[in-house]
Amino acid sequence: MGLTPKPKHGQVICNETGATSGRKLRTDLFCYHTFRTTYVEAMRQIAEFVAVLSCSLFTGASVYINFVEHPARMECGVEIATAEFVPSYRRATVMQASFAALGLLSSIAASLAGATFWWLVAGTLLGSVIPFTLFVILPTNKLLLSPTLDRRSVEAEHLLARWGKLHAVRSVLSGVALLVFLYLAIFKKPA
After folding, report:
1. 10 Å Cβ neighbour count for 168?
2. DSSP β-bridge partners for residue 20
3. Predicted model pTM
4. pLDDT in tens, 34-88
5. Do 40 and 49 form a contact (C-beta atoms < 8 A)?
6. How far apart are CA 73 and CA 174, in angstroms?
7. How far is CA 22 from CA 6, 12, 35, 62, in A?
8. Which one, of 26, 36, 29, 41, lies nearest residue 5 by Cα?
């Protein structure tokens, strides 16, 4: 008897290789194994695409902040830089957290759908920016966002400089993850 499902109307039962069983049905338009394999393959490819896209957007935003926005902010003077940090931080937080989480989740999905283990490694690298931000950068963020901070003080300038260095770690982590993702997407075949 076995675990082979009974064919429904219009289906042909396939063995593990996708070949049809001995039963001859005139309507052999649907083969469960072939459909499942094609569906899982398509889901893997979509998950890989979403992982690469999310990581690319995160990395691009992070690098932009480190090389363009934060240095420009600092050129305006400490008082303006600390004032500009508040709305910039509020807007960037949602966007970057979403991209990091989506990249991590889609790399897990790709791995579960048959992608190589390295997709999970790259996704974990990207996802590592989340705990890094929460446990390492957030204390500095809270001090910069504090209404009691004197926006003209040397302390504010040091906090902004420290924040820039810590944020650079996020750029490096996501950049390495992006390089791994791109290598896998271009050169590696699924396991």
Report:
1. 16
2. 14
3. 0.81
4. 666 788 889 999 999 999 999 999 999 999 999 999 999 999 999 999 999 999 9
5. no
6. 23
7. 13, 10, 19, 58
8. 36
Tokens of 45: 């490819």
pLDDT in tens, 159-190: 999 999 999 999 999 999 999 999 999 997 75
One-letter amino acid for residue 137 of the chain: I
Which structure tokens are listed for 185?
């997407």
C-alpha to C-alpha distances, 137 to 28, 79, 89, 129, 145, nearest whole angstrom? 59, 21, 12, 10, 12
Strand spans (E) along 8-130: 11-12, 30-31
C-beta of residue 68 within 8 angstroms of C-beta of residue 146:
no
89 is written with which tokens?
Answer: 């931080």
Give the residues across from 31 on adjacent strands.
12
Instruction: Specify whether the backbone of 114 is left (phi greater than 0), alpha (psi in -120 to 50) or beta.
Output: left
Q: Which residues pair with 30 in a beta bridge?
A: 11
Dihedral class, residue 9 (left if φ above 0, else alpha if ψ from -120 to 50, else beta): beta
